[in-house]
Fold Transcriptional regulator, HxlR family.
Amino acid sequence: MAKKKENSTNSINSQYITECDLTYAVCKTGGRWKLLILCKLENGKLRFSEIRDRISGITERMLTLHLREMEKDGLLKRTVYAQVPPRVDYELTEIARELIPIWKQLEDWGKKHKKLVKEQLLEVDEN
């Protein structure tokens, strides 16, 4: 794999991300799929296929990439069982479990915001 240039925009951005705690947290949980994957694991361990089946629209490649990244970041624990066929479970780590009340609050905010936007669109359509 190629080595990143230290003065590249990507390297400069990653330095800023590690300096700002909020940006750092959003990067670790942000994107289209990460928070959704974490939410699916809220109630306990799931196998790869169970996660994939519970998230419509995610490709196996994207799920694999995100699972690997979140495991590397310490948000997920991956357990491999020595059996044929191989069995792998994923579960939230303690630090990821601390996010549960935060994403519940974010979910409530999303519900309110969607309702507000929908009401505003209806008002515009009526006028």
Q: What stands out?
A: Residues 47 and 85 are 13 Å apart (CA to CA). The chain has a mean pLDDT of 89. Residues 1-30 form one domain. The radius of gyration is 19 Å.
